[in-house]
Structure formats: structure tokens, C-alpha cells
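Action item from last week, closing it out:
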Amino acid sequence: MGTVVLTQPQPRVAALAEQLGRGGHHPIVCSFAELVPDGAELARLADTSWQDYERVVLTSPSAAEFLLAALGHRLPAGIRLAVVGPGSLQALRAGLAPGGAPDVIHPPFPPYDADALLALPELAEFDGRQVMVLRGERGRTDWIETLAQRGARLDVRIIYASRQTEPGAAAQQELLALARSNAPVVFVVTTRESARQLDHWVERSGFGAWARNQRALAVHQRIATALAELGWSSAAVVAPGERGLQAALESG
């Protein structure tokens, strides 16, 4: 077990850090964003007639968590969900009240992204039926237009915002000490934007060369490629979600 640097947004990263700590790892939280729910938009979800929607697409684990919080951690009858990958599916299952069983479709194998989601036969044709997309203010939108081209009447709702943050002084000082002793750590990166932010931050903090020679884990090949282009020497792709991360850490 060793030191793991987590770059996921607040507040989701806190639970992951706690879980890794219980498993014997030493997590250092270095978030570059804070996700803030849109209270008014989430309140609207409580009054939604879910049977009117052919699918409700959740674009991230945070979208799943905010939806469940808005619905009292119970999925209403008739709701049909679609998620991108294991991270969102795990967030759904973890956030449901006991006995809840989500009706959800998702890509069966990697890469877990919007393109894989669009390849599912259930999303091939909509013939004028409604599709709701629950998302944050950032991220790809081209795939949403593909749903419209397939006949979906779209209802796109931005249910959370992203505020830029930086790691605290304690995390910076701890990593600086590790760099000076040339201790090994593992960096976990979940978006291309956070890859760029991380690279800029470690360089500005004075331990860029050390950090780029450490092991990095990315949840998609595009992120691993971004890290490699920034000069990170060891960027491997792992399955999204806590289980995929745990497996990668144990295998390393």
C-alpha cells in the first residue's frame, strides 16, 4: 500500500479518500474543481413525470448522486436510465435506498464514453420521444446533438456547476517532501482538463520533473494520451469507479 494522489472534484473525492485510507493507502487530495449543485434545477426534478421520457441520460457519477439526492434516494416507477460507465452505475447503486433496483443501460465494455453509449441499440432511434440529459456545465455536447439527429426531443438540464479550485498548502507541502526524498506515489486523473491543471500545478510547485516520472492512472485513453503529451512517463488506463481504481492499485 502506498501514497495515492486524487485529483477528482470535491465533494466526491472525500468519500474515495476515506475508502482508500481504510484499505491501507495514504490518500492526498489534490482537487482542481468543486462541483456545486443547482438547487432550483434539482427541485424541478421532484415534479417530473418520468414516464414521459424514453430515457434519462446521466453523464457522470456526480449527476447520478445529485439526481438521487433530489429524489430522496429512491428511483420513481417508470424512470429508464442510461449511464456512460461503471463509475456512474456504482454511484447509482450506492446511493439508492435499500431494495432499490435501477432500470439502467450502459456500455458493457470499455472505452466507457459517450460514443460507446451512443452505440447501444436502445439509443439508436427515438421517433420523436423525449430524452432527458442530466449533466454539468462542462463536458462534451456533440453526442447530445446526435440524439436529436436520431429523433429525440431533448430536455437537457444542467444540474451542477464546476468551480475551479487548487490543492491546499498542506497537500503541496506533503508532495514537495515526497519529491525531495524521491518517494513513489500514484497520481489518479479522471479528466483531460484535470490532467492539464495537475501538470501546471506540479510544475509551478517545484516538483514537476519528479511528478511526471511517477505512476499515473487515467480512466480513459484520451486522458492517458493527454498526460503522455505533457511528458508523464507512465500513464496507464484503468476502469472507472472505485473498484477499478482499487484493482489497479493492488496490481501495481
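Closing note: The first helix runs from residue 12 to 22.
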